[in-house]
Fold:
Amino acid sequence: MKIAMIGTGYVGLVSGVCFSDFGHDVVCVDKMPEKIEMLERGEVPIYEPGLDAVMARNVAAGRLTFTTDLASAVDGAEAVFIAVGTPTRRGDGHADLTYVMAAAEDIARALKGYAVVVTKSTVPVGTNRKVAEVIRRTRPDAEFDVASNPEFLREGAAIDDFMKPDRVVVGLESDRARDVMGDIYRPLFLRDFPIVYTDLESAEMIKYAANAFLATKISFINEIAALCERVGADVKSVAKGMGLDGRIGNKFLHAGPGYGGSCFPKDTSALARIGQEHGVPQRITETVIAVNDLTKRRMIDKVMDLCGGSVNGKTVTVLGVTFKPETDDMRDAPSLTVVPALVGGGAKVRVVDPHGLKEGAALLPGVEWLDDPYAASEGADCLLILTEWNQFRALDLKRLASGMATPRMADLRNIYAREDALAAGFEAYEGVGRSAGGRDLDPVRTAAQ
Structure:
């Protein structure tokens, strides 16, 4: 089957590459010639583990090509996916559908036969019907169906998520569209991965509801973490005890500096706006957004307190600035709140991140970028862990502490034990949701002893 993928951003490129690995002929389209030229050279414009190898394999097999010519890509395609950006619109928090509707117009002009126009971008409820209206208005004679096929890819694990999904959600209205979408996802169906067919509106809502619920778990455990610090409890033990309940589950119960990235901030804001527009305020989601903002600001206070109330004139080493490990994505990362506050407070900030420099250089002015955590910590007054890259999980704490001017650690991902940090020579340790006097115990192991 021939598939046209409009947009080579994160979602479009990963989806297009993976569809070609299913055996489909995929043409990825982008208006930026420099991006297409880069892809044709075999270079991947984003950091996503394993994507380069899968892309190269399918380009070599002749199943994957790249172009700026949308008309040629759409010609003969049985499915045309819209995978363009839907950034948060300034002023009202709604998703900006400018690129989606522009793509719909371009697709309408290029259609020569029947095709299913599939929205892969995250869009508000009702968008697919608007896409259909745009196509009919632009080309009244066009033969097409629309479908909603939201993505659920985790940055850093996108290939595995696409190839082994928890579920595939498809919203549509005709048997003909269902046949096309069934053929596209047949490799997953044959391996018994769930394919959820539903109506357009439900498919659109599933995406927002899922992300808002996951964001809720993060904000909930971060609020519990703040309370743990006051009452002397350990949030890691609390999360362990909660997560063993099958009704709750242990995922997304890791206290930290707040969520960021391309999905949760944008999608929670959009869902809150949708609720307001329809007279059904999403109070829980609105509170989740507020708690997340407060959590990020609370991290600034932690570092300030650890440094005696002020970072003016002090050197702070920051490990990790991307919003999560295994990505170069800086969108709404906690670092974009915390690091500028440190710089504004008079600190000299050194940053180490395996892939953060690409975007971070412009987003975090006034910081020094280094490659080595030990060199970056030499003479520093505080070590701040913001992103839990694997490279930062097994550092030589004694070596770090011995090289610092005043060895203090703000471990905002709770990857080290307080007693280990203090035993290694750190004079102060601050985690998230972990009281100063508490011991770092494994609750399961301790109960068994």
